[in-house]
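Researcher: Go.
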Amino acid sequence: MDNVGIVVDDLETAVAFFTELGMELEGEAQIEGMVADRMLGLGGVRSAIAMMRTPDGHSKLELTKFHTPAAVTHGPLDPPPNTLGLHRVMFAVDDMDDTISRLRRLGAELLGEVARYENVYRLCNLRGPSGIIVALAERIG
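Model: Structure:
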């Protein structure tokens, strides 16, 4: 897999959020023209993207802000975790409590509570920018 694409309504906020999770901004670009139109099956595409990469370089998120055509919503703005389709991105963290605290300062909200899976992981889900659900996993055993 090369990357996972996420459409956001505020690119700057999304970049700040994923940077706080330890991802690095690899680059930004403006995307428009015939190739984008044909690939996406849309007309008049004009978007901005930010490519974020994990520190180990193995995973990437492509954050996309559509200027035209405007992004559309389908269903509730903050869909529950059991919604069909891609619904979350999980990150391994070293300090769950510190990570939650830092992300809350950027507007993240905890869904449910921090749970322990056996004596192996602490797990939680947060709602981040543009309604994205971000899961955190801290290995404890």
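Model: Residues 51 and 119 are 35 Å apart (CA to CA).
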